[in-house]
Amino acid sequence: MFSGLSFGQYLPLGSVVHRLDPRTKLVLVLAGMSAVFLARGWVSLVVAGAAVMGLALASRVGMRSYLRGIRSLWLLVALTALLQMFLVPGTRLWSLGALAVTREGVAMAAFMVARLVLVFVLAQLLTFTTSPVALVDGSERLLAPLRRLGLPAHEMAMVMTIALRFIPVLFEEADKIVKAQVSRGASFQAGGVRSRLQALSSILVPLFVRAFQRSDELALAMEVRCYQGGEGRTRMNRLCLQADDYVFLAAAAAVLVVVGVLTRT
To answer: Alpha-carbon distance 21 to 8, whole Å?
Structure first.
């Protein structure tokens, strides 16, 4: 049920994307998401999608890993598609009482699903190719200007990174709980909607308990290591932009310009 999900895991493969500065990868992901949401038609979305798929291929992470991660998003994708198909007015294709599926709704549903998939691929790309330490350092450096406003850049970067890294841990815990419940005779597929929701509670309650236990263990581990936030913190490896970083940043800027021009025409 939850096995095989890979979102949030770091895969050290040594590709050109892996070797990029973490700040560059963060900017690339933000630029890619901006291009995807900026696109207003299929032509501009195809341009943004080609750039995203190019990054995914350059990461040398197999598409199977990306597809496994996308499986956890199927409910959101399906809900988005259904809302678009039934709520967008236009030429009716099929009716169910007061509800009707329109040709324009189907086109918009396909467009929105493509957007969601591309955004999720970008999010996976960041976690697949960036180690937790590098992700914290890169996020902190990008958020550093906010210190002038009194915002704790290091703590914000740490919280975001821990949240990302907890996703695969929670999936693993959920899979263990499901297997334990099934071994005791529980069934999550039989019965109606009500019985399935009741069975789901036997997963959520122990999952929340384990999540709080893990967070408490993490806080204790940070405390015994005398973690004091970003104050006085040093780094073994200094972040420095290389030639590849500038090439990828220039390509991202070009994609944004092209998508912007296509959107206006």
So the answer is: 18
CA distances from 47 to 52, 53, 128 (A): 9, 10, 23
Q: φ and ψ at 95, to 5 degrees?
A: -120, 145
DSSP 27-83: HHHHHHHHHHHH--SHHHHHHHHHHHHHHHHHTT--HHHHHHHHGGGHHHHHHHHHH
Regarding whether 157 and 67 lie in a shared domain, the answer is: no
Total domain count, the chain: 2
The burial of 238, by beta-carbon neighbours within 10 Å (0-12 exposed, 13-18 middle, 19 or more buried), is given as exposed
Full residue range of the structural domain in which residue 170 is found: 151-233
| Residues 3, 119 within the same domain | yes
Structure tokens of 49? 């999608």
pLDDT band at 20 (very low <50, low <70, confident <90, very high): very high
**pTM summary value:** 0.73
Which is nearest to 241 in space by CA: 22, 17, 82? 22
